[in-house]
Amino acid sequence: MKKYLTKTLLYNILIAMGLTIILLMLVNWGLRVYTRHGQTLVVPDIHGLQFDAATDTLAKYHLEYEIMDSAYMTDKPPLSIVEQSPKAGSSVKSGRTIYLTVNASSAPLADVPDLVGKSSYKYARIQLEGIGFKVGEPVYKPDPHRDALIGMLVNGRPLKAGSKIPKGSTITLLVGEGLGNTTIPVPYLIGLHYDEAVMKLKEEFNLTTGAVMAPGMSDAEKARAFVYKQSPQYGGGRIHLGGEIDLWLAKEMPDDIDVDPSKYDSPGTDGPDSSDSK
Fold first, then answer.
1. CA atoms of 230 and 277, how far apart (whole Å)
2. Residue 247: how many other CB atoms lie within 10 Å
3. What does pTM read for this prediction?
4. What span, in angstroms and rounded, lies between the C-alpha atoms of 127 and 112?
5. Domain boundaries, the chain
6. Buried b (16+ CB within 10 A) or exposed e, 142-161
7. pLDDT tens for residues 51-110?
8. CATH number given to 40-103
């Protein structure tokens, strides 16, 4: 009886050990299948492909994808793949997610920084290109300050700080050329409204407004006030392009000032200073 029990116990132990080994083998096999142990793929090169073609290629390789970011590159086709991670040639498991950066179909908008009157051409160019704009050849304008940024244009239209325009847009910078050696006769401004005088100096003569004497006037009153005195005076010689003319304003023209409209379109002379007052 004792011998019989010993054999039975031994058989049971052997059976249990066998079942355990089989179970372990099944578990190991299942884990290998589940984790695709040893089954790797080489990531295809989809750089430069259009988005649809790229995702079709990934599907053929049993790879997933996710758009990680977008970019805007003018030298790349819209909706093309500009970057992938993992990189082409990497070994990955089937089902791995490939992260994509796609070239946008249209340029994102960016704010134009406040640079006019505050920076040089070189600094402005660095700032604008850093944002993603293109900078065209500078256009030099008469201005006392050499290489100072005095304006910006896009498509020939004035560009204000804070405007939103597409990245990649070409911005033309208006830059001061300094006083140089070019001179013109001093123009006649007496009798003009202040805003008219400012426009005439800028548009017709490439000159700037200097000091403005308008005591006690608001901006609105100053705009419609009359110029009754200027310095340099008309007929008082020549002035460098970009030079300044100081103006004296009054709400009404003084009675002792004669206004001669015929001089508005007549250049001054190189003679001695002359007075516009009696």
1. 11
2. 25
3. 0.48
4. 10
5. 1-35, 40-103, 109-176, 183-263
6. bbbeebbbbbbebeeeebee
7. 999 999 999 999 999 999 888 887 889 999 999 999 999 999 888 999 999 998 888 899
8. 3.30.10.20
